[in-house]
Amino acid sequence: DTEVTQTPKHLVMGMTNKKSLKCEQHMGHRAMYWYKQKAKKPPELMFVYSYEKLSINESVPSRFSPECPNSSLLNLHLHALQPEDSALYLCASSQDRLRQEGYTFGSGTRLTVV
Amino acid sequence: AQSVTQLGSHVSVSEGALVLLRCNYSSSVPPYLFWYVQYPNQGLQLLLKYTSAATLVKGINGFEAEFKKSETSFHLTKPSAHMSDAAEYFCAVSDIANAGKSTFGDGTTLTVKP
């Protein structure tokens, strides 16, 4: 299995809702990432997990809460989002945070906040 | 600090013509360099990577890139463009000094004309 699987593919949520994005990989990768991508822009790093521990938080607002239940799963919990949070949310993984092999990305979750 | 500059936000070529997408980087330590491709409504896919081995790197779909330290460049080329190459291309740099984080360029949109 050489894929990163993200669910759901599309999500529409109100500003008072709570929802979660899920990411799964079975490549034995020990680093997992959340990126946010706005239209026509490069991905922006949000969080990095290394060996199931949060190692980097790029000053992301607390309405985004990551979780890594085990080495294969990564969640992003969403609460009280704003319309400007609408974007493509990408999950990625790599063998190790410091081994520069490049990332495997999922297809993303297209989030719309109304 | 590491950074990447992609020269030309839009590149248009005819089918069968040479593809050249430009990337210049800045890094305080030896860099690791990557090219990713993103098709509409998809995640990013790793095309190729430079990790301090051979300076001419071959990737998937007939793409290759050459690392030139003296020019701090890592341009992406393909001898003959196909219609299916139309996509967004991102150059990225990472290094150990930045905890392995990748910094992405702003992207280049490649259009292939029939």
State the helical fraction of chain B.
under 10%
User: What is the percentage of strand-forming residues of chain B?
Assistant: over 45%
Task: Give the N-terminus to C-terminus distance of chain A in angstroms.
Answer: 36 Å
Beta strands of chain B, count: 11
Strand content of chain A: over 45%
Order of H and E elements of chain B: EEEEEEEEEEE
Structural classification of chain B: mainly beta
Order of helices and strands of chain A: EEEEEEEEEEE
How much helicity do the residues of chain A have?
under 10%
List the helices and strands and how they pair.
The complex is a heterodimer of chains A (114) and B (114).
Chain A: E1 4-7, E2 10-13, E3 18-25, E4 31-37, E5 44-50, E6 53-57, E7 64-70, E8 73-79, E9 87-94, E10 104-105, E11 109-113
Parallel strand pairs in A: 2-11
Antiparallel strand pairs in A: 1-3, 3-8, 4-5, 4-9, 5-6, 7-8, 9-10, 9-11
Chain B: E1 3-7, E2 10-14, E3 19-26, E4 32-38, E5 44-50, E6 56-58, E7 64-68, E8 73-78, E9 87-94, E10 102-104, E11 108-113
